[in-house]
Amino acid sequence: MRKLAVITSGTKGIGRATVEKFYESGFDVVTCARNEKDLKALKEDLSAKSEGEVFIRPTDMSKKEEVLAFAKFVQDLNRPVDMLLNNTGVFIPGAVHEEADGSLEQMIETNLYSAYYLTRALIGNMKTRKSGHIFTTGSIAGITAYANGGSYSISKFALLGFTKAIREEMKPYGVRVTSVLPGATFTASWEGVDLPKERFMKATDIADAIYGAHALSPQTVVEEIVLRPQEGDI
After folding, report:
1. Which domains does the chain carry?
2. Which of 29, 76, 103, 109 is packed most tightly, with the most Cβ within 10 A?
3. Which of 23, 152, 173, 211 is catalytic?
């Protein structure tokens, strides 16, 4: 039987690239997104490439009840989760002292709580099996604050702290935990920016890095993956 990868927000950008990488490498995949049409298109595209299984569920990961419903969807498959990528995120630019009221709450709920609740729901089986790998898609904004990053940086610093905590907690159980901290990656969030595409990293490079870290032996964990454009941050 193929191993199972759970990847949130898998229809675009880094999420989609990682879904494709693991699926084409022999994994079945469970993924979610808010847009059901995009999910069905993704499933159709992948199913045309191989005989693996793709499980999809429309989900708004900024809402706790939806996160827990997605977790139950995964659990009801009655299959061990070999890899979990908490990839859901939103970016709203703005300075802390100027951004719209509610910006912090929205980004904390989406960028942090989605990972917190889903990980808590799925980690028990990993602990029991003493096997599994948890990734979080953070950002270099979670290690270096920058102007106009505001609450986005706050949420990503918090996500890195969460991942570090889980890493320490899972050491006795053989569950690997990795923070993925990419810089500017060419995804839909950068559309319309007056910069050449070559200035950005490729989403497939992030996916390759995640897969490479997961492919190491169980005795080794890459705790943090920091990736930046060759010419530096944007």
Report:
1. 3-227 (3.40.50.720)
2. 29
3. 152
